[in-house]
Amino acid sequence: MAAPSDTFAHPSERLFASMLSLYGFEWRYEPVEFALAWDDRGRPTKGFRPDFYLPDLRLFIELTVSEQRLVTKKNQKVRAFRALYPELAIAVVYQRDFVSLMQRHELGTLGNLGVELHS
Predict the structure, then answer these.
(1) Residue 65, Cβ density class (10 Å: 0-12 exposed, 13-18 middle, ≥19 buried)
(2) If 33 and its partner were Cys, which of 49, 93, 113, 116 is the partner (CB 3.0–4.6 Å)?
(3) Is the confidence at residue 10, as pLDDT, over 90?
(4) CA atoms of 14 and 119, how far apart (whole Å)
(5) 84 in a domain, yes or no?
(6) Domain tally, the chain
(7) Rounded to 5 degrees, what are φ and ψ at 91?
């Protein structure tokens, strides 16, 4: 499934979507937001919208190209998601995994996508 080019929040997501399509996976981009916290009246106050959903695998995927030391907040959301929605599967694709995919397919570097890397 293709999404309009301006749909993606980051160029890495556009490239990842292309790779999913290349491998023949049907996917949806940010199809649903899950509540992670509620106020005392039951209204959601915190949410999480995984980047991709692969319906054939019934799998959500969260992609992050941030450096590992900067993904603490995202990891907290993923842990909360897993605790609140244990019946749903989610995988996290971290920077190192994404870079490995890019290298395998000779797609350049994160710098080509506008990702700033800090040492």
Answers:
(1) buried
(2) 49
(3) no
(4) 25
(5) no
(6) 1
(7) -125, 145
Token reading at 71: 């993904």
Q: Is 44 helix (H, G, I), strand (E, B) or coil?
A: strand
Range of the domain at 45: 13-68+98-110
Q: In this structure, what are the phi and psi dihedrals at residue 93, rounded to the nearest 5 degrees?
A: -100, 110
Q: What is the pLDDT of residues 17-75, one digit of tens each?
A: 988 998 899 999 999 999 999 999 999 999 999 999 999 999 999 998 877 676 788 89
Q: Is 74 a domain residue?
A: no
Strands (E), 39-88: 44-48, 52-54, 59-63
Q: Is residue 86 part of a domain?
A: no
- For residue 63, count other CB atoms closer than 10 A to its CB: 22
User: What is the pTM for the complete model shown?
Assistant: 0.80
Cβ contact 105:112 at 8 Å:
no
**What are the C-alpha distances in Å from 91 to residues 38, 49, 57?**
24, 13, 11
C-alpha distance from residue 76 to each of 1, 31, 70, 72 (Å) = 29, 20, 12, 6
